[in-house]
Amino acid sequence: MVFTARQSWKGADGKSRYATPSVPVTNWNYSSNGNGSVYVNFTPPAAVPAADGTLVAPDGGTIYSFVYRAKNPVVAGIGFAAVRDLVSFLKNADADAQGHPNPVADMKAAACVVAAGCAAAPTTNFDVAIGEGVSQSGRFLRDFLYQGFNKDGHGAKVFDGLMPIIAGARRTWINARFAQPGRFSREHEDHWMPGDQFPFAYGVATDPVSGATDGLMKRCLESATCPDVMQIDGSFEWWAGRASLAVTDGAGHDVALPDNVRYYMVAGTQHGGGAGVSTGIVTQPGVGAACQVAPSPVSEMPVERALIPALENWVARGVLPPASQYPTVAAGTLVAPSKTGFPDLSDISVPSGAAATPVALSLASHGVANGLALTDYSDAAPVVDASRTYKIRVPRVDADGNEIGGLQMPEVAVPVATYAGWNVRQQGHAAGESCGISGAAIPFAVSQATKAAKDTRKTLAQLYRGRADYQARFGAAADALVARGFLTAADAANIYKKGAAAISPALIPAP
Questions:
Q1: What is the pLDDT of residue 470?
Q2: What is the C-alpha R_g of the chain?
Q3: pLDDT average, residue stretch 211-240
Q4: Within a 10 A sphere around the Cβ of 379, how many other Cβ atoms?
Q5: pLDDT tens track for 7-34
Q6: Among the residues of 215-278, which ranges form H helices?
Q7: In this structure, what is the dihedral angle of CA atoms 484, 489, 490, 496, given to the nearest 10 degrees?
Q8: How far is it, in rounded angstroms, from Cα 482 to Cα 478?
Q9: In 272-400, where do the E strands start and end?
């Protein structure tokens, strides 16, 4: 058993290593939960190593690593087979092996929806099957496809379409001994988690780091069971989920997506998106909070709502969906994390709370990306080759700090703040490290009178003549997304235009 503590997985060179300096936790014991399970009680060490090698007091962000010998792993990978067999049964069978009727067999009599090839006597109970997964289940779908489960026991295609949402370039830790399916790699916590290694992209290619040749669609290509795929990610997935590896080669070059794949990136969003900007008011976190900056409210779910019928029409009727939308190296919108052009916000003032009261904000660090090196997870302790790293790329930003490239929701196209897919931890919580799954909202100053001298971003008074101007431009941005197929007309009217009408006069005083 090895029990250690540290402040970061990174060393002074900025690279993450499993062997980053740590100190042992010596005062600990097992305690019973009373139901047969146990937990670990411990006393934190007096000091732990920081990324720069100095010793600091442990705090709310200290990383504790507890490695022990386990036994009796469950066969977690059977979950893939269960989904495959259930969908295949519902789609194809009249009854199960015990003679129980298929509960959806009567759908065979329904009208055919596919564009061509409708049989007079259909052999399947329904025409197409589509799988959608969000976050963990989105990563499940990517791994389901990669591990060959889209081919059923009779050689038939299981899902005709897949929509992994906010999965990034990751897969899962499922089909392995001692699997822990809910865990995934992030920059700070849970950094070393299986499911973060090559392949990342759908097409088959040779990895420049490992030398292996593979792709998420390799097995389905071999069995002619590949579905149409529509993946939707937000900004957070590019910073924390290494989503650039789904559309680049790992060496910093764009790769072409297969014809049956669409990829969409929604700018400025945290994991899963937010509730929308509406009044524009955000309240910055107080002392004791883990994250330094308020979370991003930029919405993402309305895009998913618009693209679900697009995927249905693509799979069932052959109607091509909107073209992929994401930053690219070729367009100059996809860059190294240190080259985003993010403004210096180390000494600024931002409006906070209902009255938009100016409060000081010092963002000393920003945009902490989740790096990746070639890692062997075949043993309990990962073996990391820090000399063989992937080139993670992230969206470039404009002069006001908002991302360009990908899909700009009305909140980002007509902003009242800088919206980011990352956040950073503040003092008392491993300051400077990436903060959970949160994005960031860093409001613009209301006017020149409340703007800090070092804040180079435009003020709200410079951006908008008044609330009517803001609302008109916000509504036009929503209508533009409707025209392109990325918003429904109902969401444009009932979410975005109504939300813009609620913009606070404390932020934009003029009518």
A1: 98
A2: 25
A3: 98
A4: 7
A5: 999 998 888 999 999 999 999 999 999 8
A6: 218-223, 235-239
A7: 70
A8: 6
A9: 334-335, 348-352, 357-361, 373-376, 383-389, 394-395
